[in-house]
Amino acid sequence: MKKKIYLALIILLLIACNGKSRQNSATVLQSDSIAQIDDTTDDFNAFYARFISDSVFQKQHIVFPLKDAIVECNSVVTLTAQNWVFDSHDIRIYDKASEILSIKQTQMQCHFTLERKETGILYEMKFEKRPQGWYLVYYLVNAC
Q1: What are phi and psi of 109, to 5 degrees?
Q2: Contact between 43 and 31 (Cβ < 8 Å)
Q3: pLDDT classification of 120: cutoffs 50, 70, 90
Q4: pLDDT (average), residues 45-62
Q5: What pLDDT, on a 0 to 100 scale, did the predictor assign at position 42?
Q6: Which of 4, 9, 3, 24 is nearest to 95 (CA)?
Q7: What is the pLDDT of residues 22-39, one digit of tens each?
Q8: How far apart are CA 130 and CA 144, in angstroms?
Q9: What is the pLDDT of residue 12?
């Protein structure tokens, strides 16, 4: 079990470090490209900005456990409040030359999918709006 937690931490750190190292050459989608429904854009964007910058807020806005969140060829890790590592990576910042970003948003959901073209690594996040606000309900890093 410790090996799986360690593996999850490494993957999350690699994602976060990779995102920071390529910010200068990255492309940021404009807000009108992110959201398909204008009245949810500001609401979700404000939530997401805080979600990736405030570790306490982030943990409070995740529906745990996130089952089968980290997938390696021979292992699968379920993320819990105990093994979650703060993820400050802004999935909206990506390199168009090597990655494909898909964003699907409705008034009640926002689903990000980021795929690295060369490696096939898949990174997904799905948020739902609930009465108390937005929550991360699905998280996947598939490196197999």
Answers
A1: -145, 155
A2: no
A3: confident
A4: 96
A5: 74
A6: 24
A7: 443 333 443 333 333 334
A8: 32
A9: 42
User: DSSP secondary structure string, the chain?
Assistant: -HHHHHHHHHHHHHHHHHHHHTGGG-EE--HHHH-SSHHHHHHHHHHHHHHTT-HHHHHHTB-S-EEEEEEETTEEEEE-TTT-------TTEE-TTTEEEEEEE-SSEEEEEEEETTT--EEEEEEEEETTEEEEEEEEEE--
Residue 2: how many CB atoms within 10 A of its CB? 7
Closest CA to 65 of 128, 143, 136: 136
Which two tokens mark 139? 């998280």
To which residue do tokens 């970003």 refer? 101
Residue corresponding to tokens 């937005």: 134
Residues 90, 79: contact at Cβ < 8 Å? no
Q: How many CB atoms lie within 10 A of CB 57?
A: 13
User: Which of 6-15, 39-48, 113-122 is least confident?
Assistant: 6-15
Pairing of strands 133-142, 66-72: parallel
User: pTM here?
Assistant: 0.73
